Input
Amino acid sequence: MKLLDRASTTAFSRRNCISLEVILDDDFDGIMYGLPEDSPGCRLKGKVVLKNSRALSVRYLVFMFLGKISVACGPAMSATRPDYSETQTIYRKQCVFHSSETSGKKISTGIHEYCFDFDLPGHLPSSFKRVRGKIEYTCYAILARPMFHSDITVKKIVILNRCLTNSISPLQQLNSIGDIFDDKVGYQINTPVAAYREGGLVTAEIKLKTSDPHIVVESIEYGLKEEINYRTTGEHLMSLVASIDENIFPLGKKKIMLNRPLINTSESIKISFRLCPWVNCDVDSELIYIEHKIVFTVVVIENAHTEADSSFDDTEFDDDYLDALSSDLNQTEQLVLVLYYHPCDATVRFSFSNNVLRRDASGASGNIKKKTKSYDLEIPLIVTTKSASRRERSENQSQELLQEIASTHSYHSIDEPPTYAMATMTPSPPAYPDDEEVDEE
Output
């Protein structure tokens, strides 16, 4: 049997001049609308095209849509061990286009098109692929030949995603939470409930307030965390019940430095970042579960005043030890030895200081003790895909922006480095005449 590469949708046999191809309709977007229990699913339409220059003897010609989910929950060095792995078929649909038992043993010369059209159920999870697991949907076209002839199989990967919003209203609902960290730092945070994985903008507003002027908010670190849980059911022969978690930050983290007290202030700190297609949609299946959270880490410094440490000032030493210590310090400028006598006795006492911490002879000055503590906060975020109409409008806006850039951009000027979005829409370089001479330095 000939099996084509994963990215290929056409099989060709030069020996017998046979071409087999799977073509999906242009209006197929692979989007499931609504929650899994309420979704109507989507419609898969297309055709299988067979081209042959001579009559073919075949056993059958079949189209099949297959959905599979597989996980590997083994230890790091043996993640794919069979007893820690599991594969399930979550959907299967088959259409028989030609059978030797009912349609004859040969297919005549020419171009033959076999159409397929059926509904996919709405409970199917979104496509997903990582090292430890994947959810994959594939279209197969199989041309089975008689004995002593090679079968021809072609396959096409189909991407399914879930959209939890309609095509009209954008994602405008907000999560608003507020509380106090250790009765010291109050916070109020507003974040969106959901965001699109195709460039969706996530904007959060943070308000912090401290009641003590000695408490300083040093920094705020934030990022999008993707929590993935792989698990096996143990229902298959020789398999174990296993579960493993994988927490990643697909967009990394960013830190904002403040280093100031926020006493009774109404100042709000706004942060924003955009998602991208390598952020996965939320998934809830029997073997793979994915959810997202916006993670905040607030670092606070508490400056506490303490009395001077007099342990050195009250230490007594004899004359021989002090003479030896003085001789060792004659060449050092960073450490200064201060000697003085108590009037009640002849015991010599001393205090010392360096360029970092200085004390006077009386030892009356105080120290500032810094205590650093971090507070973590996680807020759920639903990651969904755009509807077909919103995606089309976004593409049209991108095309208009691209045309505007192409008409105004000049390659004779020096510009700042482009942003990610602008860099993906940079026009092609201008064409130069072939007879133009280039001056060599």
User: Anything to note?
Assistant: The radius of gyration is 35 Å. The longest helix spans residues 388-408. The CA atoms of residues 216 and 260 lie 5 Å apart. The chain has a mean pLDDT of 76.
